[in-house]
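Weekly modeling sync, notes
Attendees: S.R. (lead), two postdocs, one rotation student

Agenda item 3: backlog of single-chain predictions. S.R. asked that every request posted to the team notebook include the full sequence so nobody has to chase files. The rotation student volunteered to paste the first one in as an example of the format we agreed on. Action items at the bottom.

Example entry:
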Amino acid sequence: MSGSEPRHAASESVEERLAEEVIEELDLHEVSDEEPMPSMSEQIAEQLGGVRGLIESSLPVLAFVVFNVVLGDAVVGLDKRTALYWAIAGSVISAIGIGVFRLLRKQPVRHAVNGLFGIAIGAFLAWRTGEAKNFYLPGILLTFGQAALLLVSVVVRKPLIGYAWGIMANKGHQDWFGNVRLFRTFQWLTLVWVVSLGLRAGIQYYLWALGEANALGVVRILISWPIYAATFAYTAWAIHRVTSDQKVAPA
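Predicted structure, as returned to the notebook:
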């Protein structure tokens, strides 16, 4: 009996070492207190592209507003369609310029490409209809669509904010379903996003319906982004408060 114990202990030691190697190789470690989620500022910077990302995403809209106001009846007095064409050109050129500048400096162009795509669609609608307000229509509809999608995810009990957190801060693991408190947090945070997006889109749609194209541009720059940033900051804080109190239970 005494001779079998060392062999058994040795066998356990080998098995434990093999298990540790497999876990290390496949990166199967659980999320633990020693692996904190990124800070609130880091998450906001990544999502929004930092202060520079906010500025760059606003420049094409600012160019559209400035060209439309300066070249239109307010200053130069060009006819409505001519001023609109110049505004479209200024917006598209500025968006392309931002992307080229980033490429030349070998910097990430994800935010620039996303912005250029949205600007191109809005510019096409404005050019086709001859209405400056339609430059902003794709963004308004997209925001309403995002709010609707988030609301559906809450109804079916698959809150998208939870999935976003799993990708951004939990190494891709979606093990939060097993944590009742965290699941409920993601449910109501997703509703917070529904309200936030609905508010942004609602204000812009109201101005669009009134035909206030220039006011739309100002609202998009000065109101929409602060609302978005504040909602994201609150979301990061609320999640961190929960995850700092408890370890996410494995699925």
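Discussion: group reviewed the output briefly. The chain has a mean pLDDT of 77.
Action items: rotation student to repeat for the remaining queue; S.R. to check formatting next week.
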